[in-house]
Specification:
Distance between the termini: 28 Å
GO biological process, one term: acetyl-CoA biosynthetic process from acetate
Shape: globular
Keywords: ATP-binding, Ligase, Nucleotide-binding
Catalytic activity: acetate + ATP + CoA = acetyl-CoA + AMP + diphosphate
CATH architecture of one domain: Roll
Protein name: Acetyl-coenzyme A synthetase
Low-confidence stretches: 1-7
Radius of gyration: 24 Å
Helix content: 25-40%
Oligomer: single chain
CATH superfamily of one domain: Luciferase, Domain 3
Enzyme class: ligase
Strand content: 15-25%
Bound molecules: adenosine-5'-triphosphate, magnesium ion
Length: about 675
């Protein structure tokens, strides 16, 4: 199969000299040496890095440093890093940096949904606000080990709330502020939270979301299900921001429902709170937070991360993958409601003492130049976004980008889905003007931080490949029988050893944890993704195992077919799914979204079939193509192929749709389904 990658494999992009010269890791030789040490002497390697963080009780040695069982046949799966240590992530993120003299440094530039709205907060000020909110939580009776639900927009108070939880040892469970009441209720009860922190509402582009009303409804559902949520802290956010232009008359944003004995205004309870609050020293293996996965492949899993390992790993991956330098302005566009936001908006940047942008808005409001405008405004040097955002912006053409200078940019990174080479090149050439390394980071909610990623000063990149493992990560590619493949190969992507940031359990369901990640291939952590290793040892993540298909005995990944389709300049996005076929076993059913203004015609269909034939081979030519005005995506922006598969097969049972961003597109696609044999 590898011949199909031939042309791609040979395209190399060495790190630019300007980045390399000052980088933490300057060459592949240096990377290999560090990597070798991280595998052969994990304790020595990680302990040295841990010296950059403060531990009240030290990381420990031997089994106290690292102790694990990855083999489901040998007993329960368990992973412990630094189990006798004690520390606090809030202390490391704030107090420790202030003590080091960073008090006046800006921690966040906040950029609102509307370009008029902006603010900034220093490390010292953030520390004081966090202490105040910690005192508030304590006063409300929140104790170490209690679970706190947070459903806030991308505002500084979200960071304040999460750090306040960790300061006092409470466990945060953050739910993205765009869920329906039902989905929110399910997440609150699953996590057993008794208190929720939210806001009156938020503008997302031109859309107003009445968060408090959704939360009220969700709490009622929780109470009915026997889970009393008896406290709700509400941030008054809407009156302090500029409304999006098209607020209709009579759309009174100041109205929120109120329950006297349950609801509290954030500003009321913060008024008299003290800006000093002692730190609770917490055991290294105590729970830090739980967070639900995106739900691309099924019902979301409540992933549990613990303190010391996650802290060390988020610090290390932020520093090395983005080659963090003191004068950087970092911007990760992900919502904190997803793992990318946890690790690379809040924890990684703050632990490193970095200045970041916290963005409340969307890429296309007020116009599709917003990202580039924000980059110029704050002189962003490291930018981290998703392939889905890149593809959306590509649709609007280069002119939107070229209106802005972008001269501050040094590194461009991506996460979330395989990035197709077409989007990679656009990101590299149009956005980065060929001077910024592209850092394609592969990881999962479960992995806590990057597990396969280039290092910008060291790695020669190839468009579409996440390249090599991060320190401490040992990937392998397995065949159907669980045998490790060597050399050029394709199969299941697994990991052989734990790294500090790996999840510890599925909250309240250790059985599901073992079943989902460790049973299929005993002795390995199974990612659920497929991958290919090329002749130079580069790893190419090809997509979900569930999304692989077998056409007349040829194993194909959806990513490969989609890449070929979107190479056509008329195509903005495409999704390929497997469909049963009486002779071939499976065939391809593809959904195609043309670029704005391009009509979907028979001629285009023919062109696309020819393209796939030429790029991949005759066996991969799609049997069915359907016009899709847009594609069903998770709220974090990933294509939901499991739903498209059901549409193609006209199966009305769509499974868990709680993370589906827009139901209406599903109905439309169902209606216009192409007749199949
Ligand atoms: P669920 O587990 O509920 O189905 P999810 O897997 O989409 O949801 P996340 O943890 O947010 O939830 O996403 C991790 C997945 O995203 C990976 O398993 C992989 O499929 C995909 N992914 C992330 N980054 C990359 C990347 N750089 N290249 C390829 N795929 C990526
Ligand atoms: Mg997943």
């Amino acid at each position: 199969m590898t011949h199909r990658l031939g042309s791609l494999c040979d395209e190399h992009y060495p790190p630019p000299r300007s980045i390399q010269q000052s980088a933490h890791v300057k060459s592949m030789e240096e990377y290999r040496l560090l990597y070798e040490e991280s595998i052969s002497q994990p304790e020595k390697f990680w302990k040295k890095l841990a010296e950059n963080l403060y531990f009240k009780d030290p990381p420990g040695s031997g089994e106290d440093f690292l102790n694990y069982n990855f083999d489901a046949n040998a007993g329960p799966i368990s992973i412990q890093w630094m189990r006798t240590s004690s520390t606090n992530i809030c202390y490391n993120a704030l107090d420790y940096n202030v003590e080091k003299g960073l008090g006046d440094k800006v921690a966040f530039y906040w950029e609102g949904n509307h370009p008029n709205d902006e603010a900034s907060i220093t490390y010292q000020a953030l520390l004081e606000e966090v202490c105040k909110f910690s005192n508030v939580l304590l006063k409300l009776g929140v104790k170490k080990g209690d679970k706190v639900a947070i459903c806030l927009p991308m505002v500084v108070e979200l960071v304040i709330a999460m750090l306040a939880c960790t300061r006092i040892g409470a466990i945060h469970s953050i739910v993205f502020g765009g869920f329906s009441a039902g989905s929110l209720a399910e997440r609150i009860t699953d996590a057993k939270c008794t208190i929720i922190i939210t806001a009156d509402g938020v503008w997302r582009g031109k859309k107003l979301i009445h968060l408090k009303a959704i939360v009220d409804d969700a709490i009622e559902r929780c109470v009915k299900a026997g889970f009393p949520v008896n406290q709700c802290v509400v941030l008054k956010h809407l009156p302090r921001v500029t409304s999006a232009v098209d607020v209709g008359v009579g759309n009174d944003i100041s109205q929120v429902g109120w329950k006297q004995d349950r609801d509290l205004w954030w500003h009321d309870i913060m008024k008299d709170a003290s800006p000093k609050c002692p730190v609770e020293w917490i055991n290294g293996e105590d729970p830090l937070f739980m967070l639900f996965t995106s739900g691309s492949t099924g019902k979301p899993k409540g992933v549990m991360h613990t303190l010391a390992g996650y802290m060390l790993y988020s610090w290390a991956t932020f520093k090395y993958s983005f080659d963090y330098q003191e004068d950087d302005v970092f911007w990760c566009t992900a919502d904190i409601g997803w793992i990318t936001g946890h690790t690379y908006v809040t924890y990684g940047p703050l632990l490193n003492g970095s200045t970041s942008v916290l963005f409340e808005g969307v890429p296309y409001y007020p116009d599709p130049g917003r990202f580039w405008a924000v980059i110029d405004k704050y002189k962003v040097s490291k930018f981290y976004t998703s392939p889905t955002a890149i593809r959306t912006l590509m649709k609007h053409g280069e002119a939107e980008v070229r209106k802005y200078s972008r001269s501050s940019l040094k590194i461009l990174a991506t996460v979330g889905e395989p990035i197709n080479p077409e989007a990679w090149h656009w990101y590299n050439h149009v956005v980065g003007e060929d001077r910024c390394p592209i850092v394609d980071t592969f990881w999962q909610t479960e992995t806590g931080g990057h597990v396969i990623t280039p290092l910008p000063g060291a790695t020669v990149t190839k468009p579409g490949s996440a390249t090599f493992p991060f320190f401490g990560v040992v990937p392998a590619i397995l065949d159907d029988n669980g045998a490790e493949l060597s050399g050029e190969c394709e199969g299941f992507l697994v990991f052989k050893k734990p790294w500090p940031g790996i999840m510890r359990t599925v909250y309240g369901d250790h059985e599901r944890f073992e079943r989902t990640y460790f049973r299929k291939f005993p002795g390995y952590y199974c990612t659920g993704d497929g991958a290919r290793r090329d002749k130079d040892g580069y790893i190419w993540v090809t997509g979900r195992i569930d999304d692989m298909l077998n056409v007349s005995g040829h194993l194909l990944s959806t990513a490969e077919v989609e890449s070929a389709l979107v190479e056509d300049p008329c195509v903005a996005e495409a999704a390929a799914v497997a469909h049963p076929h009486p002779i071939k076993g499976e065939c391809l059913y593809c959904f195609v979204t043309p670029v704005d203004g391009i009509p979907y015609t028979d001629k285009l269909e023919k062109e696309l079939r020819d393209k796939v034939r030429e790029k991949i081979g005759p066996f991969a030519v799609p049997d069915y193509l359907q016009y899709a005005p847009s594609l069903p995506k998770t709220r974090s922006g990933k294509i939901m192929r499991r739903i498209l598969r059901k549409i193609a097969q006209s199966d009305p049972d769509l499974g868990d749709t709680s993370t589906l961003a827009d139901e209406s597109i599903v109905v439309l696609l169902q209606k216009n389904r192409v007749a199949t044999a």
